[in-house]
Amino acid sequence: MTVWTPTDDGYADLSSHDTFVNGSPHNTFARLRREDPVSWTDWDGGEGFWNVVRHADITELNRNWQVMSSARGIRMEDQTYEEYLARRTFQETDPPEHMKTRMKVGKAFSRPVVADFEDQIRALCQPILDEALEMGTFDATKIIARKLPMMMLGQILGTPDEDLPWLVEKGDALIANTDPDFTDHVLDKMQTDEYRMMPFNSPAGAELFDYAKELLAKKNADGDTSGVLHYILQPDKDGNVMPENEFRNFFCLLVAAGNDTTRYSIAAGLQAMCHQPELLGQMQEGGDIWATAPDEIIRWATPALYFRRTASCDHEIHGKTIRKWDKVLYWWASANRDETMFEDPNRVDLMRSPNRHMSFGQGGPHVCLGMHLARLEVRVLFEEFAKRVKLIEPAGPHKFLRSNFVGGIKELPVTLQAK
What we know:
- There is one protein chain.
- By secondary structure, the protein is α+β, with helices and mostly antiparallel strands.
- It has helices at about 25-35, 55-65, 80-85, 95-105, 110-115, 120-135, 140-145, 145-155, 165-175, 205-220, 230, 245-275, 280-285, 290-300, 330-335, 370-390; strands at about 40, 50, 70, 135-140, 305-310, 315, 320, 325-330, 390-395, 400, 410, 415-419.
- The strands form four sheets. The protein has a five-stranded mixed sheet. Strands 4-12-9 form a three-stranded antiparallel sheet.
- Helix 8 runs antiparallel to helix 12 (about 245-275), helix 9 packs antiparallel against helix 10 (about 205-220) and helix 12 crosses helix 14.
């Protein structure tokens, strides 16, 4: 049984958020990989951009940060240099500046530190699954996939539990700012210049800025050193402390990326189980599958559909000349379905190995800081799910976000039967 069949005609407009309301246009990506691996898209909303869609090309360019820079933003939207400086996080910087922040916060997300969260994550899964099994039929994105990352977000940031639903709501409004189900300020539907200095050009960024400032003041007053915020506020070897504006941008990044990407990976895994019933049985058998299953689920999900780079100089590739200052989009969603890298890429194979997916931006200096935590959350959630669930079935059509940047299932009606 097919997990999900793309419906695009092979010539989808990659600049349009509406293109992605039925999921990624994988027929278009497949055609481009075959016929035009470095293609140009004109865009009514700003300057056009190049699309890089093959796994091998993205891997090569992703390593070459000297030619393809992150220091002009990571989304296709145009912004002035003033706006870039106001909004940027370390994601939007290149080495060596990027590495200074990365080294400061990397310890908090290292494999050994993250491994210590396993018992905590497993304990958090219990009440989530209790509620789901009691309900029987429900929206799995809201009841299961949303809750575990939200609870872990509180542990990572050291925020009060009662603040978490509000934080997640604002993170959704920030990163899914093109979907009217998540924000009243839809980026491409209204004038948002008032917030042009805020992350993602969103009023949610302003609210999160204010919250971060208050949280920081309270933690300082209490002498609270819990959570990752303590790490990022420590002076570097030269005695420099992260400026307030940069701290607030980083806080917004943690709230958005720390919740949404894991949520949509879990939702995609549950959706796959609905349409490939053998997956639940394979998980219930256990064993070696848990070494490979999390990466396959994350490959299948590809929560970040692309990241943008900006050419620092003219660059030739596949007979095309990318000019200095041109925008270049690395389509992770296409690389993760590249048939030259993945056998039968449109099916979920929980034993897939090797699995050189690019959901974490692997191969370059900007590889995702939270990848070890994401893998752990996905593994533990599905381990506990397999222990307790006998059957999962779809209870209605699933719905995707209206976004060409965040790939996620925002509604997933399912029915569960307990063992």
